[in-house]
Structure formats: structure tokens, C-alpha cells
Amino acid sequence: MPSAAYVSPDEIRKDFSRAMSDMYRDEVPLYGALMELVAETNTRVLDSDSGLAKQLQRTGEMERLAMERHGAIRLGTAHELATIGRLFAVMGMQPVGYYDLTPAGVPVHSTAFRAVHEQALQASPFRVFTSLLRLELIENLELRAFAESALAKRSIFTPGALALIEQAERDGGLNAADAQAFIREALETFRWHHTATVTGAQYQQLSDQHRLIADVVAFKGPHINHLTPRTLDIDQVQAAMPGKGITPKAVIEGPPRRQCPILLRQTSFKALDEPIAFTDAKGSHSARFGEIEQRGVALTPKGRALYDQLLNAARDELGAFPNEGNAARYVELMAQHFQAFPDNHAQMREQELAYFRYFVTEQGLAARGQAGQPQTLEALMAAGHVAVEPLVYEDFLPVSAAGIFQSNLGDAAQSHYTAHSNQAQFEQALGRRTIDELKLYAETQQRSMDECIQALRA
Ligand code: OOG
Ligand code: NI
């Protein structure tokens, strides 16, 4: 069959993301409420900030804003991780970045599956933060063996999904009917189950070890635990949440509020307690929650080092995990420390702290072919022939992710692990290397520069 008959992976991802959102909204009505609040806020922000509206139009983010979301799942075995990697590949998603959450007391390590090229991200920026449980961190050997045997018994993919993954790998794609079938079958892996695979007592034992371990081991599959819409003003949404009957966590994770947002700011509301039938008794489990995010400019290695340094300094000075009691002090300390991070795009660009994208302007196109045109990018920018816009951060932050996990596991779940970060072990489980996100941003920036030069030379 000619490859033209195949649906592009970007289309499959876009449809899958919509199907997942519909499923989650049906199951978790508060997600729908949050989406509405975010949409209202985004409209208000765009109406009041024409500069931002223009920027988002130029970069294409305006078109993808309403469909933008990320979710998260937690897996139990290497085989599950490798297979989910193949499932996501059918929709053009690659594992980007490695996040070790163990230093923050969460016994997992993770990657984010997402599209990697700016054009694919534009078609659908859907991302899934995917964690693998580190069973070797369960000290009680009997319990570890029980967890391993429970996980060995389950199969989190439908036979139909597995067959279509193999077919897509073999043929190099899926036709329209198969793509729709694939979306339906793949969705099953992410569905919530009201029944557990273990007894009430076994669940309790797992949960006493770590609530996250129970969340992974006691169920048939890795239910999607949140879907996160993107807001243009996270402080406004955070402030409006209680009015909608939603209680947000005490602090917004990530950098402080700024004129020029950097990286990623996130906040969430607590997981719902949901009724569960254990094999021998009724009980409940909480895993599913809501989250919102605000995305800013991607940082270079130099910018990221500065971010990490300032974040650590503020946290060291706070001397504790941010919580209800010290939230005001934390916000104050973050604002103080982050004064050292330039808050305008020109300075960030000059100091090579962030990545940018370059766009040919109307003026540039009009002047094309005339004699004595500026030759360098800097000169083209000075002449108004090329405009520069921040390149949006597409990834996650380990300290923030740990904060999001913790807010949903409860403070009682804080553990201390001495295990080392183990990217090699993660990649072995995954069956491939994870992609370095910084390389992707540098490539996108370079492509935009090359395109400008090309377009103006003609
Ligand atoms: C994932 C938490 C991390 C984020 O946005 O940083 C996350 C989880 O709870 O499984 O989603
Ligand atoms: Ni999240």
C-alpha cells in the first residue's frame, strides 16, 4: 500500500489527545470546570495584552493554545515502559528528557513522551509525563516480591492495541480506519478501573510502603492521573479556583511571576478520593487530580544552570518543603533570588540565557532583492526585517514534578531514598536512549535562523 494512504502520526496524536480529554472530562467533571476557567482566563489575558496576542500569533502558539495539554501515567515494569514507547511512537511521540524523582522522595524515574519537531508540536503539542516505579527501592523483600508478581500478571495493553502497534511498525503507518481503531484500543490502557487486583490488606501494605507503589501495583492499568491545560496567567487561575469549588495546592511550582515567563509554572488540586472494590472488600483510592500550567521561554544550559542555582538558594533559605505555613515566605524568597535573572527578552538573548525563534517580517519581505540589504541576523533585526520571539519550553522540571507528586500523595508520603539516579537503567528498560531536550531547542532556533536568511536572500 502506498504510504500516502497512511494517516500522519501528528493526526493520530491530535485525535488521541482529544479522545483522551473527552474520556477524562466524562470521568472527572472538575477537569471540565478547570478547562472552562482556563479558557475564560486566556481570553481575558489576550484581550488585555495585545503584545502577547501578537507574539502568540507570530509563533503559532495561538492556534495550539486551546488544544494544548499534558497528562501523566505511572508504570510498573520495564516491559510496560518499552511497549508504551512503541505505542507513543505510532503517534509521533518520542521520549524526551530524563527526570529522577528519588531525591525528592518519590520512588520513580521518568521521561516525557512528546513530538520533537516544531512543526509536529504545532500540529499537536500533546505530552505524557511517564514514570517507571523503582521497585528496587522497596526494602521489604517479601513486599517487593509480591509487587513484582502482581505486576507480572497484568497486561496493560489490549490485544488489539498490540496488534496495531506491530502493524504500524511493520508497514510504516496506519490507514484511516486502523488509526481510529488504534486510538480506541490505546485509550483503554489509560482508563480508570473501579476494581483493584489485590485484597484490601495487600493494598494497605503497599500503600504503607508508599502510596505511589499502591497506585501502580494494585490496579489493572496505568490510569491517566491528570490532564493539564495551558494558561496564559497561572496566578489568575490559582486565585479563581476556590470560587469554582477547587482548592489549589499552597504554592505554584517553578519560577516566580515575571514580565517574561521562563520555563514552566504549575499548580494542581488534590486528588479525589474514589470508591474502589478490592478483591475482598470495598474501599477507596485517590490518584486522579487536576493541574494547570503556564509555559515560558526555554532556557539554554547557561540559563538553566542559573535557574537551578536561584531555585536551590531560595529553597535552602526557606529550609523546608514549601507548604501552607511558609507559602508567603517562599514567594518572597523566590522573588528576591530571581532578581538575578534578567527579566527582558533582549537581555536574555544577549546573555544567551534563553532560546528564541526568528521570523521574517513583512518589511523584510518587501525589502527583499533590493541592493545594500543587511547581511547578518543582528543587522536584519536592527532593520526590522527579522523579528525575534521566545521559543516556548515544551518539557518538565524535576523539582516541580516532585512538588506535584507530593501535593497528591500527602506529606505523610515523604520518604528519603539514598539510591542514585540511574538513567542507564531507565534507558535499558525503555529499550532506547532518551532525547536531550536542549539539543531540540538549539536545533529549532538554528532552523529558524536558517529559514530567515534563506527567505531574505532569494
Ligand atoms: C506526575 C507528576 C509530574 C508534572 O506536570 O510535572 C507532572 C504524576 O503525578 O504522575 O505531571
Ligand atoms: Ni503534570
TrEMBL record:
Signal peptide: none annotated. Its cofactor is Fe(2+). The keyword Oxidoreductase applies. It is an enzyme of class 1 (oxidoreductase). It holds the Pfam family HGLS. Its EC number is 1.13.11.93. Keywords: Dioxygenase, Iron, Oxidoreductase. One of its GO terms (molecular function) is dioxygenase activity. It comes from the Bacteria. Belongs to the 2-oxoadipate dioxygenase/decarboxylase family. This is 2-oxoadipate dioxygenase/decarboxylase.
